[in-house]
Specification:
With 379 residues, this protein is of the alpha/beta class. The protein has helices at residues 33-47, 86-95, 98-101, 117-123, 144-155, 166-175, 218-228, 245-254, 271-275, 291-298, 310-315, 330-342, 348-351, 360-378; strands at 21-26, 51-56, 72-75, 105-108, 128-133, 160-163, 181-183, 204-209, 234-239, 261-265, 279-282, 303-305, 322-324. The strands form two sheets. It has a seven-stranded parallel β-sheet with strand order 3-2-1-4-5-6-7, sandwiched between helices. It has a six-stranded parallel β-sheet with strand order 10-9-8-11-12-13, with helices on both faces. Helix 1 (33-47) packs across helix 14, helix 2 packs parallel to helix 4 (117-123) and helix 7 (218-228) crosses helix 12. InterPro entries: Glyco_trans_4-like_N.
Length: 379
């Protein structure tokens, strides 16, 4: 069922202004979820007659050829590629272009781009400035206090936050109670007719997909498959790229997992791999809304995950969907995988109702309605 959002009372006086020109600001076309989702929604918005511009620091990363030709793409001159300080440079450089571009709404599609907020907020003129919370806003540990302080300062420049799930909405409300926050789900783009699953075999096939970066905790996935092989024969297929991949390949070899782990790299479509999988493993430290888990459920593949995401708790509401472990340990994950892999395989028809509200058009349309409300409030 689509989730309908009504914007009106409490949103400010409606001036009749709409988000006719939407400006999406991001660093580059990195193959991450936030960029891919923004590009997909931009296609829907231009189909509905809106003007959409993507302003990027560098036109590189792998997704640049997926942009709808009706969407304008502008690269900073000179370009600003990723570096340890690049986001501090990105905001002021983009701010200089706002007067000429004259957007109605400026959209930052994820936490990674929060450092752009102060510079864009000061230069936006009458444009509404909004940002999506794509991951838990505050990390654990010693950095939590300064991050909360920074978020409160950033929030002063914003007209609103869009949270990817109700848990993230509650988190940001506690940090910035005076800033408008709403839950808007990311669309997920699914194959209409997923490939038929493979026949049952003695060796269980576990799939992992993501960037080889600390957030995804690939070492935990390797420890988990080692632990699972103490319970049953199993193989782990790892999809994705990232700077930690060589270290993970070396770690797998050191652990003696050469026959149990395959590193495939980036793939154009995950569907053939899901068709061969008995379960999807999510080993992340934190996640906002892992789209790969939704794709797995759409294929009838149960998910086993660390307690990393409010979003997964929102959608994994029946036992057939898999398990979210109480702790992020290899032993707990392996036991959960063993239980899931020995249970009867669910059908896509049983799991797709859990994710029906994530259909692309209703999600993109809900974002557009929110943009219109934010633009009208700015006047």
């Amino acid at each position: 069922m689509a989730r309908f959002l009504v914007f009106g009372a409490g949103m400010g006086e409606n001036t009749g202004k709409t988000a006719n020109h939407i400006l999406i600001c991001f660093h580059d076309f990195n193959r991450g979820g936030t960029e891919r989702i923004a590009i997909g929604m931009a296609k829907r918005w231009v189909e509905l007659g809106r003007r959409v511009t993507i302003l990027c620091g560098a036109r590189q990363g792998g997704l640049e050829d997926t942009v709808d030709p009706r969407v304008t793409v502008l690269e900073l001159s000179p370009p600003i590629p990723r570096s340890p300080i690049s986001r501090l440079q990105l905001g002021p450089a983009m701010a200089k272009m706002l007067a000429e571009l004259a957007p109605d709404v400026i959209f930052l599609p994820g936490n990674f781009h929060f450092p752009l907020i102060p510079a864009l907020g000061k230069a936006r003129g009458r444009a509404a400035l909004v940002a999506k919370i794509s991951n838990p806003a505050v990390p654990q540990g010693l950095v939590a206090l300064p991050v909360r302080w920074l978020l409160r300062r950033f929030a002063r420049h914003l007209d609103g936050f869009a949270a990817m799930n109700r848990g993230l909405e509650a988190e940001i409300r506690a940090i910035a109670p005076d800033t408008h926050v709403t839950t808007l789900y990311d669309p997920v783009y699914l194959t209409d007719a997923p490939p038929a699953p493979r026949a049952e075999t003695a060796v269980k096939e576990i799939l992992w997909a993501g960037r080889f970066e600390p957030q995804k905790d690939a070492p935990l996935a390797l420890r988990t498959i080692a632990e699972l092989n103490r319970l049953m024969p199993a193989r782990l297929t790892m999809l994705g790229e990232g700077y930690l991949r060589p270290k993970m390949e070396a770690l797998a070899a050191k652990m003696g997992l050469g026959d149990q782990v395959s590193f495939i790299g980036h793939v154009p479509s995950i569907d053939p791999y899901l068709a061969q999988a008995d379960a999807l493993l999510v080993s992340s430290v934190f996640e906002g809304g892992p789209a790969v888990a939704v794709e797995a459920l759409a294929h009838g593949v149960p998910v086993v995950s660390t307690p990393c995401s409010h979003f997964l708790r929102d959608i994994m509401t029946i036992p057939e969907a898999g398990q979210i472990t109480a702790s992020s340990t290899a032993k707990d994950l392996a036991q959960a995988l063993a239980q899931v892999c020995t249970a009867p395989r669910p059908s896509p028809a049983a799991l797709r109702p859990l994710i029906a509200h994530l259909a692309p058009e209703p999600c993109a349309d809900a974002y557009l309605a929110w943009f219109d409300a934010m633009a009208a409030k700015r006047g």
